[in-house]
Amino acid sequence: MNTCSMNNPLICPLCRKPNHCAYAAGRPAEECWCMNLPVPKRLLSQIPDEERGKSCVCEACVRAFKADS
Ligand SMILES: [Zn+2]
Q: One Pfam family this chain carries (predicted)?
């Protein structure tokens, strides 16, 4: 595990892939995919405490979670 990715706001804390968060990339938050695809609270609860609220999850994880539940 590459610890350099810890707390990187551009990396999904669940799968360690780029989360494509527009806001973290310095673009307007309205451009982010999460504006059209709300992230379930139960998915957010799976993020490690130290990363919750710092790193966004990625769209793939949200879609996988929704398909699962
Ligand atoms: Zn992810």
A: Cys_rich_CWC
